[in-house]
Amino acid sequence: MSDNGATGVTGALLYRRYGLAFSQRPLGELVDLALRPVAAPQLYCTCNVNHLRMLQGNAAFRDAYARAALVTVDGRPIRMLARWQTGTDLPVVTGADLFPALLEKLRPGIDRPYFVASSLDAAQALRDQLVARGFDPAAIGTESPPFGFERDEAFGTAMAARIRELGTTHLFMGVGAPKSEIWVARHFALMPAAHIFCVGAALDFSSQKKERAPEWMRKLSLEWAHRMMSEPRRLLPRYAGDAWLLATIIAGRKLEPVFPPRA
């Protein structure tokens, strides 16, 4: 895939300012793109402010992002920042929106999805949804890796082999950032010619194992507040750090170069 949807002057401007040439493709175009056959693995990253912060200090995470076919804006803070600082109006395509939109379009007899989920219950629920739509159970892969799997090379190699042996066309990683992206990058040479999505809690939302913020909160850009209230001890420090990063960017900080426009 050569077109990341962020080419030309706009892509270069975004890259100079944020170190990332964000995709300008809306959700529908991305879903259509992800239904096309590919000759090599294609990694899609959905970037929120927390990802931006981790990219500044995590070289392995930067390497994963550098392998991406495209990077979307996952959250309105980045969209508002880019509009204010560069005059660019970028579409917001979150993992929590992209995953269910694509899941609904997967085709029995054509697509062979593989779900790496935070729990076996979540993976099984997604599998059951597709079987109810006519998918052959043998054409669906499910996995819930153990804690620390990203550091277990033997397990990682075996999981990559299972993904490849299924003939996977769509790999969905739902075990959190940065471990999902870093695991994919470290095993990229073992991946099949598939569309690969690291979409975190989106698998839990679509399997109904976690409750997503109600629609009215999403429309008001308050989804972060809903998540923080559900997991305050984990997310309050994270959001405080993210807010500090935003403040430094507003003050003029240039970010690490990670993902340039693709020719």
TrEMBL record:
Pfam families (alphabetical): Glyco_tran_WecG (PF03808)
Entry superkingdom: Bacteria
Signal sequence range: none
Keywords: Glycosyltransferase, Transferase
Parts forming coiled coils: none
CDD domains for the chain: Glyco_transf_WecG_TagA
Keyword DNA repair on entry: no
UniProt cross-references to PANTHER family, sorted A to Z: PTHR34136, UDP-N-ACETYL-D-MANNOSAMINURONIC ACID TRANSFERASE
Name the record gives this protein: WecB/TagA/CpsF family glycosyltransferase
Organism: Novosphingobium pokkalii
Classification lineage: Bacteria, Pseudomonadati, Pseudomonadota, Alphaproteobacteria, Sphingomonadales
